[in-house]
Amino acid sequence: MPAPRTRRTALLALPLLALTLGACGYGSESVESEGKAKIAAGAKKIDGLDSVRIGYFPNLTHATALVGNREGLFQKELGGTEAKYSQFNAGPSEIEALNAGSIDIGWIGPSPAINGYTKSAGKNLRIIGGSASGGVKLVVNPGKIKSLDDVKGKKIATPQLGNTQDVAFLNWIAERGWDVDAQSGKGDVSVVRTDNKITPDAYKSGSIDGAWVPEPTASKLVAEGGEVLLDEADLWPDKKFVITNIIVKQSFLDKHPKAVEAVLRGAVKTNAWIEKNPDKAKAAANAQLKADSGKPLPAKVLDPAWKSITTTDDPLAATLEAEADHAVKAGLLEKPDLRGIYDLRPLNKVLRAEGRPPVDDAGLGVK
Fold first, then answer.
1. Which residue from 36, 177, 193, 349 has the fewest beta carbons nearer than 10 Å?
2. What does the pLDDT read at residue 312?
3. Strand partners for 247
4. Using an 8 Å Cβ cutoff, are 258 and 47 in contact?
5. For residue 108, what is the enclosing H or E element?
6. Are 22 and 109 a contacting pair, CB within 8 Å?
């Protein structure tokens, strides 16, 4: 049951902070790097800018950014304006960097985008495009859990209180008619908030019986003997739900629309290249992961994780609103006003130029 309004208001700050933690991020530091591609001789700058600063997580759910960086597709569209990249390991640090002007455009999960928008009263950022859908699974110990009903009474990990996967799991529990206190995680199911970095070790030690987690953590658990009991995509219409968006600092969008369009062109062309060249794209993403984090994913993790994530230009706006509603139902979030969170005009301009249909903002776009 949702918490009383007074309790929900008192607890609002903590869940909102938790919601900023990206679905797939670890830690909170950022690392700057230069893209693989070099500026072509004689190329003209866009909007007179020396550079556009782009942020993303070194994670497969940010495949568009990984591949676009590795293959130089953003740099190609930016011409004489340099694409500079920063890697982040959690939502709060990326939102802070965007607010501070350290980055201009970023790839980020839905919860931190919602939080960044609402905390600034709609003044600091806009979602300008989609990037990825899917890649979240309930993986369990097959010796302890053989059916969905067996989840009752077990210990299931989620990345953090109030993060995207935690909210999704709490909503699934409620829809099955089970009771769990959202704050403590205690009830008919024990929800154990565990950092994705240590979830595989927790599984191996037997301290958890399963986990509702994003890729590649899900595939790491499978590599340790776990089995996929449920793919979250099966719970959504058309099996699609947002896991990564593209956001922009609002003042940057206002001042440099051509630069924003160039990055979006790069994203659209990168997604098209990924679709046409899945094996090359997977290798490029893993190569960029190695460059960014120092360690590529092994094939037994990379291959199944890659298959479960779909890159998309569509931000799947209706699912963003649904995810926020799930948090409200769980008593973790006051109902946010998301009207104006999207500005899809630059993306739709790019899509029209590519002969593609426009995408929809589900009534949450700027007027």
1. 177
2. 97
3. 106, 127
4. yes
5. strand 105-108
6. yes
- Looking only at the bridges linking them, the beta strands covering 242-249 and 125-134 are antiparallel
How would you label 142-174 residue by residue, b for 16+ Cβ within 10 Å and e otherwise? eeebeeeeebeebbbbbbbbbbbbbbbbbbbbb
Per DSSP, the three-state class of 306 is helix
Sign of the Cα torsion 235, 237, 362, 306 reads positive
Residue 358 above 80 pLDDT?
Answer: yes
Handedness of CA 196, 306, 37, 354 (dihedral sign): negative
104, amino acid identity = D
Q: How far, in Å, CA of 314 to CA of 281, rounded? A: 19
At position 152, the amino acid (one-letter code) is: K
- Report the C-alpha gap between 175 and 67 in whole angstroms: 37
Whether 145 contacts 154, CB under 8 Å: yes
8 Å CB contact between 113 and 364: no
pLDDT band of 23, cuts 50, 70, 90:
very low
In angstroms, the first-to-last Cα distance of the chain is: 35
Q: Is the predicted pLDDT of residue 11 greater than 50, yes or no?
A: no
CA distance 101 to 105: 10
Residue 296 structure tokens:
């590529």
CA 335 to chain centre: 21
What pLDDT does 6 receive?
Answer: 32
Over the stretch 144-195, which tens digit does the pLDDT of each residue have?
Answer: 999 999 999 999 999 988 888 999 999 999 999 999 999 999 999 999 999 8
Q: How confident is the model at residue 42, as a pLDDT?
A: 73
Residue (of 70, 78, 83, 84) closest to 31 by Cα position? 84
User: How many whole angstroms separate alpha carbon 327 and alpha carbon 16?
Assistant: 10
Q: What are the distances in angstroms from CA 98 to CA 31, 42, 116, 176?
A: 14, 30, 9, 39
d(CA 38, CA 337): 42
Closest CA to 104 of 244, 242, 262, 243: 262
pLDDT recorded at residue 36: 55
